[in-house]
């Protein structure tokens, strides 16, 4: 990051407490009507910006038919059920799992907008699209309210609202409505500023309600937002005169968070039951390089031909950056007589020159693209911006530390200093576990790694989403910088406003909002008046959002599902179906009768239909010309019966120590991958026993089941008899359904005398083969 994020000066925007109430009174009396007018202006701007979203809201979906379709299903479910009731925790997908609302965001913080829309339109697509549309103007409006309160300037506040509500970074999160719905966070900060100035309870109420709604809208913002609020309290409430106000804020925060505790505990219990984990072990994969701030969505009109898209797309726009940069440069020059040695002044000038040079290089490359010149036989070229961006960040920080502006701003609790520093802090957190330039790690661990010891943070897989808060802080800082620059520069305020307005709009303006065709209902093959669950084939990531969405119409449970997490049984289920394993369809039928609906549009050679028909044993029960439905009746349990456990003396494997397979701890395992013929594990019973079964526990790694397994027994370890052979996907599926944390597959075979039992992997697959626990069993006694 760079020095513009730390802008502060002695003559900057004064704090709210320093203003006279008499100066504010006339403006406040006109604010309600003016606020309504400005909200309407933001709404109108949003209609044009997102065109043609609203006219097509009934038959199209914003962005793409994947995550937005899932979120449409969630918003519909929120409108149809009582929040956090037992029914609400069990929406109709991922059969036969329970409590699957805990697999992803609950989006309850969006219901003030989405639920009334559904009640009025009865159209889930319109519900989603209207809620998505409102994220732009409402975010802009709440940011406007925050900055207007701090500055008492509507021009600056209007610009800040546009910069936040219509930031180019939002397009990077277009498919995630929960990330776009950050309009409660500015109200959280408004409540804090309001209470600190006026000490009225209504501001604490605003803070508490907005905090609760934002936490229910987005789990990321609940945890990431807590970091920003904590920084705010530490900064503004640390003076002795503010300690009582700080205590009141903290108490309110605790009270407002209390309703979240049972929800959090429910999520935690469900995740423990299913063994749902997310790992940030790969620091490079989850960390953004410095160049991420120069990546932008290709929907952004002005910058799409200048900046690359890549994956992070954190570019916030250049106008807000330049505003704060200019404020930093100009305002830090307005200081009292400097008594420092001449050498220190010279060093500060040199560091500032380096920072300015790096900024010029970056802006020049952005404008003209990669360049190359030759001077005196030496080639100077610029194609990548990572190095100058790093130089800019480092030299700017040193330059600011060498000024007295930071100290003065801290003493007066400058809002501009806070939001400038907070921009940088949010940017550092967005970098993830390490700070890197390209693939080269510069700092490990980075600040985000410090947060991983706090509850909940290990479940967040996208640290770059911290940058949504960075965009907010930058937008607020830009509004404060606008106020100061318009008072320092002797230019027409109207012309300056128009110039900045054009820049902010140009930074975020898009070519058009992507719209996708949503999945269609299949009423002739997925009838509402039936009770059986539905399995749509093909099953898998490309089709599952559609299967989830169609449950809105037929109201039956579907085996298909898409969410932030998949239940542990989903990987073996998908593998077995894609392998056309008839045992997988029978395994599902062992849980009860169900319907299979084969999508003919995805089955050009008819293989899925033949697969379903061969197991169902009869022709289709319904057809609409493209899709066909088959009914599978319930079958007896497929779980193999096993006898008492036989003591095991030792275990070994063809590679690595086999001891974790018999240590009686399900959380440890032996593993090796990828799967290939020749892998084996072996247990020694110590003496000859009569055996008739094996339990192969997968633990939390049901996806790493052996794709094809053989079981051999031997008395002497030299002569072997094969007693079981076959694919295991169906058994792994049922094991994970029965016990998600253990996923114990049971194998039975005719009684044999044996001292050694060996398991061999016979197939090839990219996944590991894992064994959490192995148990050898006696035959089942009559």
Summed up, what is this model?
The chain has 782 residues and is of the alpha+beta class.
Give the CA-based shape: globular
Q: What is the CA–CA distance across the termini?
A: 73 Å
What portion of residues is helical?
Answer: 40-55%
| Beta-strand fraction estimate | 5-15%
Poorly predicted regions are: 1-29
How many individual helices?
A: 24
Radius of gyration: 31 Å
Alpha-beta classification: alpha+beta
Query: Mind describing the biggest β-sheet?
Result: 7 strands, antiparallel
What integer is the average pLDDT?
88
- Extended strand count: 19
Care to describe what's here?
This protein has 782 residues and is an alpha+beta fold. Helix content is 45%, strand content 14%. It contains 24 helices and 19 strands. The strands form 6 sheets. Strands 11, 12, 14, 15, 16, 17 and 19 form a 7-stranded antiparallel β-sheet that branches. A 4-stranded mixed β-sheet has the order 7-8-10-9. The chain is globular, with a radius of gyration of 31 Å.
Topology:
Layout: H1 21-49, E1 61-62, H2 67-80, H3 111-121, H4 124-151, H5 154-165, H6 177-180, H7 184-198, H8 201-217, H9 219-236, H10 243-257, H11 260-274, H12 318-331, H13 342-368, E2 371-375, E3 378-382, H14 386-401, H15 405-411, H16 415-430, E4 435-437, E5 440-443, H17 447-451, H18 467-488, H19 493-508, E6 515-516, E7 534-537, H20 541-554, H21 570-578, H22 582-589, E8 594-599, H23 607-616, E9 622-623, E10 627-632, E11 645-646, E12 650-653, E13 670-672, E14 679-697, E15 708-714, E16 721-727, H24 729-738, E17 744-761, E18 769-771, E19 773-777
Parallel strand pairs: 7-8
Antiparallel strand pairs: 1-6, 2-3, 4-5, 8-10, 9-10, 11-19, 12-14, 13-18, 14-17, 14-19, 15-16, 15-17
